[in-house]
Amino acid sequence: MITNKYINSTKSIQIISYFLILLFGSALLIVSSKIKVPFYPVPMTMQTFIIILFGSFFGWKKASLIVLTYLMEGLFGFPVFAGTPEKGLGLSYMVGPTGGYLLGFLFTAFLSGYFNLKANFILRFFYLAVSVIPIYLLGYLWLGYLVGWSKPIFEIGVQPFILAEFCKILLLALIIPKIFSLKKNLE
Prior knowledge:
By secondary structure, this protein is an all-alpha fold. The chain has a single domain, classed as Arp2/3 complex 21 kDa subunit ARPC3, CATH 1.10.1760. The chain is 73% helix and 0% strand.
């Protein structure tokens, strides 16, 4: 017979592990936003890579909570985003030019955790590409709203990042089977 003490202990361990996953995940996301990798035509950060990695490893619920935690930290004024604190903090940063991209992170975390990434390589690559679309779609729409549609929004806010995203998605499509294998060994 399972006792209440055992059930309460198990719930406490689950809550603590969830909390640690959120802390570790948001910390890794913060680090990934601060590191700029030299790339053509613009330097890239590894945020989208990490977000999709979280989705594939933790699933959509935990990945979405990690990204939500990260966004809340930024909302409360912590310098968690790329370009902070130089470009502002808190709500003022989040409603600035990168606001749509930040909101897209949440949808990308959901999609990358929702799709069956155990599929074959081609399908997995396709799912990963679809997962990253919300970042650039919402970023494009928000940027157009802020600066006006008469500007070359696609050339400013999407095109410079396509090659970098392609490389990140390709790398993820290659390593995700190893991630699933690692996860299975940890369970």
